[in-house]
UniProtKB/TrEMBL annotation:
Organism, as annotated: Candidatus Magasanikbacteria bacterium GW2011_GWA2_56_11
Cited SUPFAM superfamilies: Band 7/SPFH domain
UniProt name for this protein: Membrane protease subunit, stomatin/prohibitin
Protease among keywords: yes
InterPro entries: Band_7, Band_7/SPFH_dom_sf
Keywords: Hydrolase, Membrane, Protease, Transmembrane, Transmembrane helix
Length: 301
């Protein structure tokens, strides 16, 4: 009887022990799943696009040291804590445009300009660490505007609006000034080039220039017309002098010379192909009219 009671007690103990183990295993599994969810929930991925780098800024809540990671994420995918900030940096050549309104030239004319600067980041970590994500707006843009203004003030409106030489000089001056500034400020970016477009003067200046050009064109046309009249007059005078010299050499009176010229004219007219002429001679022996018709007529009288 005692053996049976002992056996029953052992089985009860084993059953309780098994139930406790199952509970511990089940509870442990739940805890593992819970902490896994919490752990992975505190992670996120940093995956830069082609031509970009992600600079990691660590911001721990309780433990660890913050600051910028010395190595950026360049390719692939990297998991980071959700408190870590990832700053995307474009390391490809970038183009920044600046528009200028009413930029004064050396002769006091307000001009509109478009300027473009092309830069390339050489060290993304140093850039974000020392100058922040808005490095261009805070450290480059205002300096660029100032350098362009200074260069444009060295030239007049006509130069900057028409001459490509003046624009090239402005480009060169601004490029040199910006290269010196970037080096002195230790900005980890490379200057590729600076381009300044041609000046666009105010509408009133444009209208005035068009009117001036029209006036100059009229003057040129009138001068050419006057020159043509003078040339024609000189030619007529030369021909008259030649005719008079011929008349004197032939010993002809003015009346006879005129009659001779009339005969020459009639001969030229009647010599035209298909022409038929009739001559009417008056009592004085002078040819009165000359009739040129395409109808056949009787022989000349």
């Amino acid at each position: 009887m005692s053996n049976y009671a002992g056996s029953t007690g052992n089985r009860e103990s084993e059953r309780k022990m098994g139930a406790k183990m199952k509970w511990l295993i089940g509870g442990g599994s739940v805890l593992v799943v819970f902490f896994s969810v919490v752990f992975f929930g505190m992670l996120r991925s940093a995956k830069p696009d082609a031509g970009h780098e992600i600079v990691l800024v660590h911001k721990p809540l309780l433990f660890g040291s913050g600051g910028i990671d010395p190595e950026p994420v360049r390719t692939g995918q990297q998991y980071i804590w959700w408190t870590t900030e990832g700053v995307d940096v474009d390391v490809q050549p970038q183009q920044f445009e600046v528009k200028f309104d009413d930029l004064m030239s050396s002769d006091g004319v307000p001009l509109d300009f478009d300027s473009v600067i092309r830069l390339q980041v050489t060290d993304s970590v140093a850039l974000i660490k020392n100058f922040g994500p808005k490095w261009y707006e805070k450290n480059v843009e205002s300096v660029l505007k100032n350098r362009v203004r200074q260069a444009v003030r060295q030239h007049g409106m006509n130069e900057t609006a028409i001459s490509t030489v003046a624009i090239e000089e402005i480009d060169a001056a601004v490029s040199e000034a910006m290269a010196q500034y970037l080096e002195g400020a230790q900005l980890p970016v490379r200057l590729i080039d600076v381009t300044v477009g041609k000046a666009n003067p105010p509408d009133a200046i444009k209208t005035q220039r068009v009117e001036t050009a029209a006036q100059e064109q009229r003057k040129t046309t009138e001068a050419k017309r006057d020159q043509a009249e003078k040339s024609r007059k000189a030619a007529e005078q030369s021909r008259a002098e030649a005719d008079n010299a011929y008349r004197n050499a032939m010993g002809l009176s003015p009346e006879l010379f005129v009659a001779l010229e009339a005969v020459k004219m009639q001969r030229e007219v009647c010599a035209t192909s298909g022409a038929h002429c009739s001559f009417i001679i008056g009592d004085t022996g002078r040819v009165v009219p000359t009739i040129n018709t395409d109808q056949p007529t009787s022989p000349a009288q």
